# Entry
Amino acid sequence: MTTPATLPAFTLQVFRSGDLLATHGANMGDGLSFAAELVPDDTYELRPHSTLRRLALRADTGATFRIAPSTLTGLPGALIHLDSCLTLMSPDGQTTEVITLVEVDGAGDVAEIYALPLAPLVPRTTYSLVGIDRESARSRLAAIACVSFTAGTQITMASGAQRAIETLAIGDRVLTRDDGPQPLRWIGRTTTRAVGEMAPILITKGALNNSADLLVSPEHRLFIYQRSDALGAGRAEVLVRARHLVNETTVLRREGGFIDYFQLLFDSHQIIYAEGIAAETMLVDTRTRAALPPELAEKLAQSLPGHTNRPHLQFEVPDDLLNRPDAAELLRRASTR
# Structure
C-alpha cells in the first residue's frame, strides 16, 4: 500500500542562488537569498550560461519536503523549506514570480537556496526586486502541482455522456476507472499566464488515441494500459506526466496569453476519462492542499488515505524511461496492439 513516504517524487526546474546575482543595491555581488536577507529594489541578473537544474522532491510530514534520491541537484534526504514568493520586474515592466526554496543540512544550517521561476528568466536582463511575499509560496507551488484540465475538455459522466468541464457542478457523478460513478467534491478554477511552469501541454488528437485535442497542465499524469511493455516499465499500467511526452510534433507546449485551468476533486484520487483517454484528478497532498478552501482542506485531512494510499500511484514511469523523442508514439502503439 502506498504511503506518503513512498509517493512518487515530483520534479522542479530550478536555478541555484549563485545563478542570480545582485548587480545593484544593498546585496550587490551576492546571490539570491531568502526573504529575511533580501532588500526591495535591489536588481538581479541571471548569469550567462546558467541552466535550470532538476530538483526532485518528496512530501515530508507536516508542511515540509525532502530531496528525493532521484534528484540531480542537492543532497538526497535533506529538508527543503518553502521560503517566499518574489516578484521581479524587467525594464519593460513585465513581472515574473520566483519561488525561493531553502535546503537545510543535518545541523540545521542553510546548505543551498533555489529559485523556481514561474516564467522564463533571460540572461543579461536586469530584474528589480519589487515584491517579497512570505505567505504565498505554498499556494503558488500548489498551483503548479495541481493537475488541471482546460476549458472545453470533454469529461465522461456516469451516464456515458460527454460534458465540457466548465459545465460541471459539485455533486455531478463522473465515471472513474477504479470506483465507477463518483460525485465531484470540489471544482477549482484558476486563470494564469500560460508561460514557464504554467504553460499547458497540448496532446493533439490521436497522439495517445484521444478523440480530440487534450490540453492539460504540465504535471498532469495520464493513465495508459500497455498491451506490450514498450517502455520497459515492468508493468502494463503506467502513469506518465504530460511534460515528459513533449516532442514538438504531436505533443507540444503551448506558451502565450492566459489559460483557464480547472481542478476536479473527489473523495479519493481518481482516474477519469477526458477526450476519451484516462487521466488523473487532483491529488491532495503536502504540495496541493494550499490550493483548497481552508474548510475543505481541514475536512479532507481526516480522509487523506483516500488520496495517498492508492495503488495506481505506484505506476508512475521514471523520467529516464521517457527521455526519448518517440515516447508518445511508443505509448500510442503499445496501448492499441
User: Anything to note?
Assistant: The CA atoms of residues 8 and 46 lie 31 Å apart.
